[in-house]
Write a structure and sequence with these properties.
Order of helices and strands: EHEH
Number of helices: 2
Helix content: 25-40%
Distance between the termini: 50 Å
Strand content: 15-25%
Structural class: alpha+beta
Number of strands: 2
Radius of gyration: 18 Å
Length: about 70
C-alpha cells in the first residue's frame, strides 16, 4: 500500500480489560495490521495491579525483595 500526504492514516484501536489481553486475544491481528502500515493503539482498562500468578512460575514480591 502506497501512502501519500493526502491518504489518511488508518488506525486500529484495541480496547482490553487487562494488560496482556491484547497479546493473547488478538496478537496476530495487531502484528498483521502493523506490518500493513496501520497505526495500532492499545487501551487497557486496568493496570493489572490486582492480577495474580496462578502458574507459580514467577517469584513473589517477597522473593524479589530478598534477591
Amino acid at each position: 500500500m502506497t501512502m501519500s500526504s493526502t491518504t489518511p492514516q488508518r488506525t486500529l484501536l484495541i480496547t482490553v480489560a487487562h494488560p496482556d489481553d491484547e497479546t493473547f486475544e488478538c496478537g496476530a491481528l495487531i502484528a498483521n495490521a502493523a506490518a500493513s502500515g496501520i497505526r495500532v493503539i492499545v487501551c487497557s482498562a486496568s493496570r493489572g495491579e490486582l492480577g495474580e500468578d496462578a502458574s507459580g512460575l514467577y517469584p513473589t514480591p517477597a522473593a524479589l525483595g530478598a534477591a
